[in-house]
Amino acid sequence: MLSPERTRGRTYARITSIYQFDAFLLRRRVSSNYVLLLLQQIVATLGLMAVAMAAAEHYHAAPEYEHQAPAKHIPIVHSESYSHHDGSYKFAYESANGIVAQEEGFVKNAGSKDHEVQVAHGSFSYTDPHGHPVSVSYVADENGFQAKGDHLPTPPPVPQELIDAYAKAASQPAYHDEPEHVQPSAPHGYSQY
Q1: pTM of the prediction?
Q2: Residue 134: what pLDDT?
Q3: Cα(124)–Cα(103) distance, rounded to whole angstroms?
Q4: What pLDDT, on a 0 to 100 scale, did the predictor assign at position 87?
Q5: What is the distance between the alpha carbons of residues 123 and 136, in angstroms, rounded to a whole number?
Q6: Can you tell me the distance from the alpha carbon of 161 to that of 85, in angstroms, rounded to the nearest whole number?
Q7: How far is CA 14 from the centre of its chain?
Q8: What are 85-94's contacts with CB under 8 Å, separation 24+?
Q9: How confident is the model at residue 91 (pLDDT cuts 50, 70, 90)?
Q10: How far apart are CA 145 and CA 119, in angstroms?
């Protein structure tokens, strides 16, 4: 148990530090509303930090596939890479676990400053975690990146009726009976304001 002298000393130290803080605020001309706002922001920040830390404790990483062995070094069994001064290149590699990739590229319209386009085409394949083979071939050029693969989603085919309707509409002459801006007349004798 603390002696009364030590308790008085601690209380006096607290009171003194409070008065010093008040004096500091007065010298800086800080209002008590500002201090309350500052304290509210500190409490809110600490609360958010507590929630974030609690959420981090409950975070679970995505489950790994059961048949995957721990990470190990996978050797590259084949690798080649060529590049030329004209911007063309070629690379290919194959790893021991069956990943295969290759790509070739060149500069289309070389020398034509406004029309130069880097073109690349290639493919890669691997076996997904469920044991299914995945293969993708792609082209990247002035039309963007276009990938093809059996596992990639594709839009449904356009119905033949729609194709026929578009063809018929395109074959019709572009003629309009009405002028572009028609002023409606006032209904039943009412005047417009």
Answers
A1: 0.46
A2: 92
A3: 9
A4: 83
A5: 5
A6: 52
A7: 52
A8: 86/110, 87/118
A9: very high
A10: 10
